[in-house]
Amino acid sequence: MSAFESYAISALTGIVSGLLLSIPVGPINLTIMNEGARRGYMWAALIGLGATVMEVIYCTVAFTGFASFFGNPILKAAMELFSFAFMLILGIKFLLAKNVVAPLDLGEAVDRMEHQIERKLHPHSAFWTGFVRTMANPGVLLFWIVLAASFLSRGWVDDTWASKLVCIGGVTVGVGSWFFGLAWLVSRGQGKFSERTLLRMERGSGIGLLVLALAHGIVMISHLARHAS
């Protein structure tokens, strides 16, 4: 595989994963929809920009700080299995949802911590609202730790700074495209999405996660088959 092909795969991996993880309805999407309908595109876009910056920071931390822990073969194998199950369960959860659900519920203690962070920092500007609300959600970091380790173990992202930065750049494009696109839609008078529309968004993300899980599972099976032979 040429360097260009390797970087193209890393970029595509980042774009698709960033987009899929931004679509499920959560605090940022709801904030953009509510504020965009009231204050217009620029305010909603700045919320999205703040959220994108914090999301990329969490993604960068995951790639540079945590994913390296899984270099051990046993930990790597365990992480591959966990990431497959993680994407599969989450995809099924979104696909079969009968009402809008939070992307990842980490319990009441974490919810209280999120509220305390927001209350203490109390952001006033649109940018800092998006930034702080994303920062206060530890589930975002957990998502990226799992996915970063999975992408590295599968070879979709090489364990080099260049490949990681290309993937992070792709994440920036995917996350930013969704948030800015959503801000534009609500500012054009589409601020009141129906429950059915929100469910379709959630289920679409679930289908995407199931496709990723399927690809992940196929690679795992092929590796097992090669080792068995």
Concise overview:
The chain has helices spanning 3-22, 27-39, 41-66, 73-95, 108-121, 126-135, 138-154, 161-190, 195-228. The chain is mostly helical and 229 residues long.
Describe the structure.
With 229 residues, the chain is mainly alpha-helical. The protein is 82% helix and 0% strand. The longest helix is centred in the C-terminal third of the chain and has 34 residues, at 195-228. The two termini are 24 Å apart.
Number of domains: 1
The separation of the N and C termini measures 24 Å
Strand tally: 0
Let me know the largest β-sheet.
Answer: none
Low-confidence stretches: none
Number of helical regions: 9
The amount of helix comes to: over 70%
Strand content: under 5%
List the helices and strands and how they pair.
Layout: H1 3-22, H2 27-39, H3 41-66, H4 73-95, H5 108-121, H6 126-135, H7 138-154, H8 161-190, H9 195-228
Helix pairs in contact: 1-8, 2-3, 2-8, 3-6, 3-7, 3-8, 4-7, 4-9
Give keywords:
single chain; 229 residues; mainly alpha; 9 helices; 82% helix
